[in-house]
């Protein structure tokens, strides 16, 4: 039977059952409701306890359905009376852009022959953790997910949207990146193109279908060929997904002045803001900056219209309860944020304040990109209707950058807090081009902008003999690495698999020449147990601290890089020379890697003693003075636990 007929039959049966319930007397009807409630609770408990991965699918349906409902609400409120199904130009250009964007991401990801590590495997590891925790037990999965969403800096919120395609595909990092391109970037491109459509309706209404299509394609090109999007997108970081909610917020606030309380709009605004907070911690800098600038703009406009008091009351009626709800629900998150000194923790990543990061953006984006964005922004500021939203968006991005750079420097993915400003400028430039009266002049400018976008993206591939180093173009590097040392790396992981039980660990102390412990841990998707058997977090003193894994692991692998910074060089020196630590180890074998790197493997023979503990306290005395809880206190706690274990034995 065709699916529509089945659905119709179910609908008719449901209607008959509802009418039968309505005909019953109230006590009987409520008894039936109670039975259904009990059955639902029992069924839900069974699913939760024994059908963990099914629960993951239900969460995916809920999250993805809510996301597209938000997009539909934003469309309905931004384009009243306009059915998206009837806007063929928008849909076709969106589809063309999505196809190109997915092809570019897939091409870059699958062309490489490499192993990812560090930040590139962070969310990949969390995706596997999500699946494994729910596969163990639905109850355990739910508790683990709730704890992560409420307390962790790196939340699994984005992983919920990635679940379905990744569940059906091979569990490799390449397939993970393809999965989030489908589930995270497609809605992001959709939301941002909706924002571009709204912008065009304000600044250049009445354009022909051909010119509208040209505008949409230029906007899609500025997104899918933007190196700042492509680098994190092709290195395991779905962080740009947050721009979906940024675009929804901008759409809902574009011309809303709080003269009245439109509850459907405000409900969508609250949901988008809440989701953005769950996406990445640093998007909160943009949230604070935007709502501050937006509130000031709304109140300023209300004062000019002599409606200050009612508008202020409406702002408070919505803003205060929303802030209270978010603070109460995410209290553990905000407690962590307020009690953590991120300037201290991320001090190793800090490369200067606002001015230094402005120079960094100049190098990263390139002068031509910034000029195009600036010209587009000036065009928007010159338009009376677009001036207010454009000024608020620009001020919010700059203020977010000022706030963020007080503690950290903008990396490739954190720079996304500036994306609303950059894209607004590019969209404005595209709108200006498509409004040029002369058809030939418009075509020439369109070709010039399209050529620039393609050259700017192509240059970041750094092809030998086909790329240039210039401040005019983006300074990003979309590596096309095809490693030739995977067999040498496999020798290391084969040793781990052949000589260790799954509950045993090997500590790999390396962070140089394209190697780290994480690159080995995630180099063999056929053996995911390596991800827990290989320990590595040893490179940044302020975040990793003293690596107790060198004491607890069965084997420790080091190199001759004795002068390397952070913690790596000190651990290498401790094992490769005569120290109070080296006497606890026995040389086993070595593994030659590329660039003359040799990984020396040592077996741990005896537990640490007081002499070894004191040695490491002296070695890391400088770090211990700043972060004693990560060094001397951690060492003392380990030794105390070791002494207690010996006493009980």
What fraction, in percent, of the residue positions are helical? 55-70%
* Beta-strand percentage range: under 5%
Shape: globular
Give the termini separation.
69 Å
Rg value: 28 Å
Topology, pairings included?
Elements (H helix, E strand, L loop, with lengths): L2 H21 L2 H25 L1 H27 L9 H24 L10 H15 L1 H14 L5 H12 L4 H31 L5 H16 L2 H7 L8 H12 L9 H17 L3 H22 L3 H22 L1 H9 L2 H4 L8 H12 L1 H15 L2 H21 L14 H16 L4 H21 L26 H14 L6 E3 L2 E2 L2 E2 H5 L8 H4 E2 L5 H4 L4 H4 L2 E4 L9 H9 L8 E8 L5 E7 L5 H10 L1 H6 L5 H17 L1
Parallel strand pairs: 1-4, 1-5
Antiparallel strand pairs: 2-3, 5-7, 6-7
Helix pairs in contact: 2-6, 3-5, 3-7, 3-8, 3-12, 4-8, 4-9, 5-6, 5-7, 7-8, 8-9, 8-11, 8-20, 9-20, 9-21, 11-12, 13-14, 13-19, 18-20, 19-20
Compose a concise summary of this entry.
This protein has 649 residues and is mainly alpha-helical.
Key terms:
649 residues; mainly alpha; five-stranded mixed sheet; 67% helix
Structural overview:
The chain is mainly alpha-helical and 649 residues long. Helix 13 (283-304) runs antiparallel to helix 19 (384-404). It is built from 30 helices and seven strands. A hairpin with a 2-residue loop joins strand 2 (511-512) and strand 3. Strands 4-1-5-7-6 form a five-stranded mixed sheet, with helices on both faces. It is globular. It starts with a helix and ends with a helix. The protein has three domains: 3-50, no CATH class; 54-458, no CATH class; 486-648, no CATH class. The longest helix has 31 residues, at 173-203.
